[in-house]
Amino acid sequence: MRTVDSLRMKAPVERVFRAAMDVEQWPALLSHYRWVRMLERRPDGGLVEMAAWRPFGRFNYPTWWVSEMWIDPGEGAVRYRHVRGLTAGMDVVWRLDPIEGGTEVTIVHDWQGPRWPLVGRAAASLVIGPVFIHGIASRTLAGIARHVEGGNEGMRERGNDLPPFRQGGEVGRGVPPFRPSTEP
């Protein structure tokens, strides 16, 4: 399963990168994030616990996961590998590319699905990816955009309204594969 969400933000790459890597501030900026905790901190990232709501009308479904996080300013990327929760084994990359007037932000989620016999991959491709992962990622991009573009007032109340975004099966520019650091 691969989900791709992308949004053009009217802000410089440096500002967007700061917001993307400062995950501990996300609950204050993004109405759908319940909490984010750094369980282990390293200069290039750490182990981060995240919990978010996936809204379905008036009902909010709780989600939770723990990820290894790597920050790579040279590549303009923030990478994650989910290590706990339903989505353990998922690789995620936030790719930030400068464009005229701002930054193109693309989030790619790659995952084989849960280890459920017979239905794991189908559940990932038909429900978990397009409904949950895309639903949370698209809201995250919209909220980060409001913040970096200077319109973060009232963000907690407006968390479910989304600007136009792209979602597709592949990344056209070619997002490099996930390569976790082998250093201790």
Give a description of the structure.
The model is unreliable at 153-184 (pLDDT under 50). This protein has one domain: START domain (Alpha-D-Glucose-1,6-Bisphosphate, Chain A, domain 4). The protein has an eight-stranded antiparallel beta sheet. The protein contains three helices and eight strands. With 184 residues, it is of the alpha+beta class. It is 23% helix and 40% strand.
Essential attributes:
Alpha-D-Glucose-1,6-Bisphosphate, Chain A, domain 4; alpha+beta; disordered C terminus; 184 residues; globular; 3 helices; eight-stranded antiparallel beta sheet
The helix content is: 10-25%
Query: What is the makeup of the main sheet?
Result: 8 strands, antiparallel
Quaternary = single chain
C-alpha end-to-end distance: 30 Å
- Determine and state the CATH class: Alpha Beta
Low-confidence stretches at least 5 residues in length (pLDDT < 50)? 153-184
The CATH superfamily label reads: START domain
Number of domains: 1
Structural class: alpha+beta
Gyration radius, in Å = 16 Å
Q: How many beta-strand elements? A: 8
Number of helices: 3
Order of adjacent strands in the largest pleated sheet: 2-3-4-5-6-7-1-8
Shape: globular
CATH architecture: 2-Layer Sandwich
Strand content: 35-45%
N to C succession of SSEs: EHHEEEEEEHE
According to CATH, the fold-level topology is Alpha-D-Glucose-1,6-Bisphosphate, Chain A, domain 4
